Amino acid sequence: xxxxxGKTLHALLAEHSLPMETLLGYAVQAAVAVTxxxxxxIVHRDLKTKNIMVTEQGLVKVLDFGLAKQAAAGVxxxxxxxxxxxxxxxxxxxxxxxxxxxxxxxxxxxxxLYEIACGQRPFGGPxxxxxxxxxxxxxxTAPEKLNPKIPKPLAxxxxxxxxxxxxxxxxxxxxxxRELAAxxxxxxxxxxxxxxxxxxxxxxxxxxxxxxxxxAAAAGIWLPRLDHSGTITYTILAQQMLDGRPTGxxxxxxxxxxxxxxxxxxxxVASPQPGFFYLIDHGPGANGVERLWMLYPRSxxxxxxxxxxxxxxxxxxxxGVERLWMxxxxxxxxxxxNTVGDAAGEVRDPSASRRIVDYLRQLPPASxxxxxxxxxxxxxxxxLGASLELRHQ
Length: 393
What we know:
Layout: E1 6-8, H1 9-15, H2 20-39, E2 42-43, E3 52-55, E4 60-62, E5 69-70, H3 92-95, H4 102-118, H5 128-137, H6 143-146, H7 152-161, H8 173-189, H9 199-219, E6 230-239, E7 241-242, E8 245-246, E9 251-253, E10 258-259, E11 264-270, E12 276-284, E13 290-297, E14 308-309, E15 313-314, E16 320-329, H10 334-337, E17 346-347, H11 350-361, E18 367-371, E19 374-379, E20 383-392
Parallel strand pairs: 10-20
Antiparallel strand pairs: 1-3, 2-5, 3-4, 6-9, 6-11, 6-19, 7-8, 11-14, 11-15, 12-13, 12-16, 13-17, 16-20, 18-19
């Protein structure tokens, strides 16, 4: 066994001497290592602060892959009914002895991020059964309530990592890595004055990148670019209508335009990355209760730069705001794909609607800019979500 001079993340947290930015930087390094393991089909199954070692040079090593197991494609990677791992860091499916995949590691990593941000673990109890019960059933206190100083994107990322259902979490550690790197980068951008970074820091960064690249190349593993973000460009096409019939040519509209009842609109969307597109209408139903309509569930991935066009949607007769969610995901989203609507796409199950809305509101914020091809949206992570409000009278 290799001897490593350094301290575990658990020990560093106990000292209370390092700023959050530094600790999150170590977490980014750990996320890169776990991303590489997942790329090789390995699920760690025992991620915790005691298994993350920080060397004297500031390099991070993820230890103890003893519970890790090669995940064969399409085959459960752990036997059902077998509980292995550290209880306070387990995922719900792991605590129940169910089959696990890389999303179980993402839940455990969320616990580590919670501990960094809040100074305490989100789950626990006086004994094993009570600890496992809290992992499966308890909703932890929101990180921002325990530490109001943590960045909102970090709090949102932690909340999504700790979702009880695997399909509601980020679907890859690579995506977690990108979002977390963006959070760490945000610390520097929000500083009141630029700080001079010691040359040693650049040296360590180079060593990390070089070492990981060599390991990845030897193992045939692809490592993520931490500056990568999801991008889509969309255009609103509108058309005037009278008595249900078009009265003019369709035109390119602005999100700030005011439309009229009975007019119709559709969206044209494209992305440089392959992915799945979803369009969701969020508003009151016939009885005034908040409802969702799945307007455009994309069951097959779009190719890079492929232009998608939704169907036509008509503004109703009641003046107000049409609230839409545009979602672009690198992976098919089980939460949206498996949600059943009626013939009009309305989601009748209130609990399913709440789960979807909570998920959408926790997605990383997207930045918007105008381009010649339309409005471009960018966001870190494997899922880009943006709300769109169209006013009509």
